[in-house]
Amino acid sequence: MVKNISGTNISNGVALEDTDGEPFIFFIFNDLSVKKPGDYRIRFSLSKIPESDFNSNFEQLDHIFSEVFTVFSAKNFPGVLPSSSLSKFFSQKSANKTFKGLK
User: Fold this and answer.
1) Domain limits for position 60
2) Model pTM greater than 0.70?
3) What gap in Å lies between CA 30 and CA 95, rounded to an integer?
4) Are 85 and 19 contacting, i.e. CB atoms less than 8 angstroms apart?
């Protein structure tokens, strides 16, 4: 596996109500970027880190893969897409400080 991703790859859960008003915990990764063009999936792992010892091994509780997404070269970049309704929702809830290209 080659690491083509940069940015903050660790996130604490943020307790918010979802778009239906139900309590939910979200893990927000607002500054991830992929360096090379291609089709990718990201594996997200949920781990429990002991409060008493951050340097010890920690238990991985579960993992999930993202949907496949495409990264374009600058030459082939089709333009910025409008922000998703979920991104706009997070922005309104102030769960995240930067939403690039929010429209």
Assistant:
1) 5-97
2) no
3) 10
4) yes
